[in-house]
Design a protein that fits this description.
The complex is a heterodimer of chains A (130) and B (416). Chain A has 130 residues and is an alpha+beta fold. Helix content of chain A is 25%, strand content 26%. A 4-stranded antiparallel beta sheet of chain A has the order 2-5-1-6. In chain A, strands 3-4 form a two-stranded antiparallel sheet. The two termini of chain A are 26 Å apart. Chain B is elongated and about 85 Å long. Chain B has helices spanning 5-26, 29-50, 56-79, 81-98, 106-117, 124-135, 140-146, 151-168, 177-199, 210-226, 231-244, 247-250, 270-286, 291-304, 313-326, 330-344, 346-354, 366-379, 382-395, 399-415. In chain B, helix 1 (5-26) crosses helix 3 (56-79) and helix 1 packs across helix 5 (106-117). The longest helix of chain B is centred in the first third of the chain and has 24 residues, at 56-79. With 416 residues, chain B is mostly helical. The model of chain B is unreliable at 96-107 (pLDDT under 50). Chain A binds chain B through residues 16-21, 23-25, 28-29, 32, 35, 48-49, 51-52, 54-55, and chain B through 204-205, 254-255, 390, 393-397, 399, 402-403, 406-407, 409-411, 413-414.
């Protein structure tokens, strides 16, 4: 699993709000092409972009199981998840390679963003036959 | 189903008829529906290779019937194996000749099934899933894919819906006249929801899920054929056709969204527009006028305009006012505010939008921000437009919409 995890406090590239239309278009195009390639290679299991962090809610079961909902944005939150890919690769090295390619998505001025992407294995479920 | 559109269409058309025949004969919708799913699967694998049988409906009924017999048998076997052995022969004899005898029943069955699947006791999500499976003949996997949930989740949802119908004690028969009118509203609403989900997916990477909108149109056509004089049914079908007609121009390269004003009208589907306009023109004077006819009339005005500037906005505004009186809902009010802006200027439109801020169903909704952004853009108030486009972009769960809104904000911000 590849997690596109940004840090609000010290992102080393400007927020997409501030990019030019061409830069945004190039970025979207790169992501679309990458997903297409991963799909064609049979490596993409699932991938989703997530709505902005200010749309997040944190839910806890309160007294008697009633939901207690806290709404964002959270001044305290240091990092947020922008999106994720689940890839099925032969080796862990290949997952790192894919993450590196995605990390280099173009940003302002067409320069690679080199955004941080966290790579974590997905735990396997017990065999279905049980 | 493996890509033979002829077989696929045929199966979808026959599915509700076969479910109807088997449900009537066995008095058990749940088992009949499962049996028909298996018969459809068998047909989808055999027909493309061996050819479509001379009597496809009879073929499906027979296979479904045999499957049901198997269920009945295995139940009996659990209780009494010897009794089963004695019964086997008469059951088979019964199955063979009866398959094709119910020729008169197909027309009503589709409607009865629709009324049953769109039962008011079901949540819209359950009603949609069950309708697509039992009436639309889509497999559970196909429906799951369209709604982007795991197949097991969709299977559970469908089986819960069937249990709910069973528990509610709805008999498999045509409801009386009054109940039928009320239940037809639910049917039209479910078809409308299926269409909308296909036309503008609420989440995910693709703007449209064509299978869903075309399936909704096919089902609306079927209902229209069954109830040709019902003007709201005609209105709904017209609305779908007139909306779908614009699809080829709604997206550009890479699936990017194109707003109505910027669409290449030459790419609209002229035949669908002509059909929709004819339907709504015939339905409106027949009355009674309902919300689907009003929305279809608005869609027809958009489709018939030679350009965005030449759109008959005063007429559209008048129709939105009638629609708002008829069925007040915040989305209608939002559209009315936009039409107001086109007739009386963006400032008046923004005033109309302000009233929606206090509506809990609309406050914080991305469409409200997007509409406001468009009006500020018309006013040439760029900072306010950019701010609202960004707010809308962060609130939508549709990726193409988010891209569209982000780009729109960026384009305006750059001009500053």
């Amino acid at each position: 699993m590849l997690l596109m995890q940004f840090s609000l406090a010290n992102a080393d590239f400007p927020s997409i709000d501030t990019w030019t239309p061409e830069e945004i278009r190039a970025h979207i195009g790169f992501m679309g092409d990458s997903n297409g390639k991963l799909t064609a290679a049979g490596e993409l299991v699932d991938g989703q972009g997530l709505a902005g962090a200010d749309q997040a809610k944190i839910v806890r079961g309160g007294n008697g199981g009633a939901a207690v909902v806290t709404e964002g944005p959270f001044a305290e939150t240091k990092e947020f998840l922008a999106g994720y890919w689940i890839v099925d690769t032969d080796t862990p090295e290949r997952a790192v390679e894919i993450a590196a390619e995605l990390s280099a998505a173009p940003g302002p001025g067409g320069r690679p963003l080199n955004m941080p992407i966290e790579v974590r294995p997905v735990m396997s479920a017990p065999p279905q036959e049980i | 189903m493996n890509g033979n559109p002829h077989v696929e269409d045929l199966l979808r058309e026959l599915a509700p008829q076969v479910v109807g025949v088997l449900t009537r004969r066995f008095g058990d919708f749940t088992t009949a529906e499962d049996a028909v799913q298996e018969a459809l699967l068998a047909a989808a694998t055999h027909w493309p290779q061996e050819g479509v049988p001379d009597n496809p409906r009879g073929w499906l009924i027979q296979v479904g019937y045999r499957r049901m017999i198997e269920v009945v048998r295995s139940e009996q076997a659990r209780r009494n194996r010897e009794d089963l052995a004695a019964r086997r022969e008469p059951y088979d004899l019964l199955a063979a000749p009866a398959a094709d005898l119910e020729a008169t029943a197909d027309r009503d069955d589709t409607l009865v099934l629709l009324l049953m699947c769109c039962h008011p006791a079901l949540s819209p999500a359950s009603a949609i899933s069950l309708t697509l499976r039992a009436v639309g003949g889509l497999s559970t996997a196909e429906i799951a894919r369209a709604f982007m949930v795991p197949e097991a989740t969709m299977a559970q949802r469908i089986s819960r819906a069937k249990q709910r119908i069973k528990a509610s004690g709805v008999p498999f028969s045509m409801p009386d006249r009054e109940d039928r009118a009320r239940r037809l509203d639910a049917v039209l609403h479910v078809l409308y929801l299926i269409f909308n989900e296909g036309h503008t997916s609420s989440a995910g990477p693709d703007l449209r899920r064509v299978e869903l909108s075309s399936e909704a149109i096919r089902l609306a056509r079927a209902v229209h054929a069954l109830l040709p004089t019902n003007s709201e049914v005609a209105g709904l079908l017209a609305l779908m056709l007139l909306t779908e007609a614009r699809s080829p121009a709604r997206t550009g390269p890479g699936g990017a969204l194109i707003s109505l004003a910027d669409q290449d009208r030459g790419r609209w589907d002229a035949a669908a527009i002509a059909e929709g306009v004819a339907l709504i023109t015939a339905a409106l004077p027949r009355g009674p006028v309902g919300p689907y006819q009003l929305q279809a009339a608005i869609a027809a005005l958009h489709d018939e305009a030679p350009s965005a500037e030449k759109t008959d906005w005063p007429q559209i505004l008048a129709l939105y006012r009638v629609l708002e009186r008829h069925s007040a809902n915040p989305v209608v009010s939002l559209n009315r505010a936009v039409a107001t802006a086109m007739v009386h200027g963006p400032a008046v439109g923004l005033d109309a939008l302000a009233a929606l801020d206090t509506d809990p169903r609309m406050a914080g909704h991305h469409r409200l921000y997007a509409a406001r952004a468009h009006l500020y853009e018309m006013l040439d108030d760029r900072p306010a437009a950019v701010e609202n486009y960004r707010a809308a972009a962060s609130r939508t769960t549709s990726l193409p919409e988010q891209h569209y809104l982000t780009l729109r904000a960026a384009r305006l911000a750059k001009g500053n």
